[in-house]
Design a protein that fits this description.
alpha+beta; protein yfey like fold; single chain; 197 residues; two-stranded antiparallel sheet; 8-stranded antiparallel β-sheet
């Protein structure tokens, strides 16, 4: 991993942990902590569903799409799923960050892998997935979008965003949002995170 990728991954991870923990924003931190439209208490793992055979998000009974990230190794990372079995499947992360959670009782973790990070929250002794952040072009969404894509690429693959600004595009799903953070009209990171209301 080159220095720039490492710095981006570190900034995104730190910002995501700040959002996750409900703590104060990181001064000068990544846009995730400062501009993300989501930061709240997760619900149960029952709020998520699988994708269709082509890998694109499917609609469930509520009519909202279901988003999850599948690694190049075929491991599906679902928001609010128990994280420890997933980490066992993913293997040793290149970096692990842990901190006492400000919003929950216990410890929150960030696991860094090549191309993505997994952030967790403690839920009555269970380590659950809170957010998954794609940090480079090696990691693609099921819709085929990766870091470096243009806004036009995102909308061609995913349709019109539910929330749009110069800083991000957000697609509201069932229990999870798919967020594309932008710098100068180009995707700088992609975050799957718990959906607000």
């Amino acid at each position: 991993m080159n220095f720039k990728k490492l710095m981006i991954a570190a900034a995104v991870s730190l910002a995501a942990m700040t959002v996750l923990a409900g703590c104060e924003e990181v001064p000068g931190g990544a846009d995730t902590a400062q501009t993300s439209p989501v930061a709240t208490t997760p619900t149960s793992a029952d709020d998520t569903a699988a994708s269709d055979q082509n890998g694109a998000a499917t609609e469930n009974q509520s009519g909202a799409p279901s988003f999850s990230y599948t690694t190049t190794g075929g491991i599906e990372l679902v928001i609010n799923a128990e994280c420890d079995p997933l980490v066992a499947q993913l293997g040793e992360p290149s970096q692990t960050f842990e901190a006492p959670s400000c919003a929950f009782e216990g410890t929150s973790y960030t696991y860094t892998y090549d191309g993505f990070t997994v952030e967790t929250y403690p839920d009555q002794g269970v380590n659950r997935v809170y957010a998954v952040t794609l940090t480079d072009a090696a990691a693609k969404t099921k819709e085929g979008v990766a870091v470096g894509a243009s806004v036009a690429d995102v909308t061609a693959a995913c349709g019109a965003a539910d929330v749009e600004s110069d800083a991000f595009l957000v697609y509201n799903g069932e229990g999870v949002d798919l967020q594309f953070f932008l710098e100068d009209g180009t995707v700088s990171s992609i975050v799957y995170t718990y959906h607000v209301g």
